[in-house]
Amino acid sequence: MRRIVLLSLVACQPPAARQPPLVEQETLVDLVGSWRWLQRSEQDGAVVIEDEQWRLRPTPTAQLAGSYLRTVEVRSTATLGFPCNQRPWYRQRALIDVIVEGDGASGYVARETGYTPEPSPCDHGFRHVTTYAVRPRGNRMELSWDGGAQTLWHVDSVSDAITQPWAAPPPSPTGAWRWQTHAYDDDGNVRAEAEWWDITRRTESRIDATYRRRVTVRSPGDATIACAGAPAWSFDDAYVLDGDREDGHWHFVERAVDAGRHPCLRATPQRTLDEATGEQIGEFLVLEWRGKRRQVLYRPYPE
Predict the structure, then answer these.
(1) Torsions phi, psi for 118 (to 5 deg)
(2) Which of 105, 159, 260, 264 could form a disulfide with 57 if both were Cys (CB 3.0 to 4.6 A apart)?
(3) Spatial distance between the Cα atoms of 237 and 220, rounded to a whole number of angstroms
(4) Per-residue pLDDT of the chain (303 residues; tens, 9 = 90+)
(5) Radius of gyration (C-alpha) of the chain in whole angstroms
(6) Rounded distance, CA 74 to CA 282, Å?
(7) Cα separations (Å) of 104 from 107, 132, 143, 246?
(8) What phi and psi, each to the nearest 5 degrees, are found at residue 265?
(9) Please, which residues bridge with residue 295 across strands?
(10) Bridge-based pairing state of the strands 33-43 and 148-156
(11) Smallest Cα–Cα separation from 134: which of 160, 172, 107?
(12) Is 125 left (phi over 0), alpha (psi -120 to 50) or beta?
């Protein structure tokens, strides 16, 4: 009779009391590997593509460690240049370190512990570290925080640390640079400007530079431009500069110019030599010319 009563008491207990709790480490092990999140949206006349690649690995303690590479690419839908880099698109990247552990209750949390942003004139570099509530869902991992949520999808079991995909900039801005812009002149014509720069190092604190500047003016309706006798005309200038390192930036001075000639330039055949302060920010060289004219050069892509 006592045996029957004991069996009855056990049968009446709720499932949680009859079964041992899940082992936290086993559940965390299910999160080891590579995860991915991707989102596309349109905001204020631009297409925004957000991409996160996570990797988590086990540690000797009851937690996971890892990092994720977050990339945000913004492209203008009107082909207009953004003020930060004067191009119709820009990218922000950052490598964020995280740990995943139990929250002391019945769930798990992911805590950001540090970050390394890619230097860019379109990124101030500051981040607020965030803590996420984590809910495993098989091949999905749901993250939520105050004001948002996202779902990562399991990719594979690779848990190696993510390598920072951008290289440290060289101590001097040597090599090739490009710049281009489009605007309308006072007559309503499209004025396209492009520059090809080449910088070489003379000493540790002195550099030499040359750049070729091409300007093309085109009538938007292919009407004939009177001074050119055609719907478009162009000219090339070639400049020689040198630069000195001063308190963490570079001081550029134009020394000579080979000015292009064209019938449309008869009223302004001369060029005025200028000087600028240059700061290298990652793959960009930001120049501030006299008169507060800002110019952002960028590294050309490999052919």
Answers:
(1) -75, 130
(2) 159
(3) 24
(4) 333 333 333 344 454 444 444 434 447 889 999 999 999 999 888 999 999 999 999 999 889 999 999 999 999 988 778 999 999 999 999 999 999 998 877 689 999 999 999 999 999 999 999 999 999 999 999 999 998 999 999 999 999 999 999 988 887 899 999 999 988 888 899 999 999 999 999 999 999 999 999 999 999 989 999 999 999 999 999 999 999 999 889 999 999 999 999 999 998 889 999 999 999 999 999 999 998 899 999 998 764
(5) 29
(6) 18
(7) 8, 14, 17, 54
(8) -105, 10
(9) 287
(10) antiparallel
(11) 107
(12) left
Q: What is the pTM of this model?
A: 0.82
Residue whose structure tokens are 């981040």: 127
Q: What is the DSSP string of 179-218?
A: EEEEEE-TTS-EEEEEEEEEEEEEETTEEEEEEEEEEEEE
- The answer to whether domain 21-156 has CATH 2.40.128 is yes
Residue 144: how many CB atoms within 10 A of its CB?
13
Distance CA 102, CA 206 (A): 55
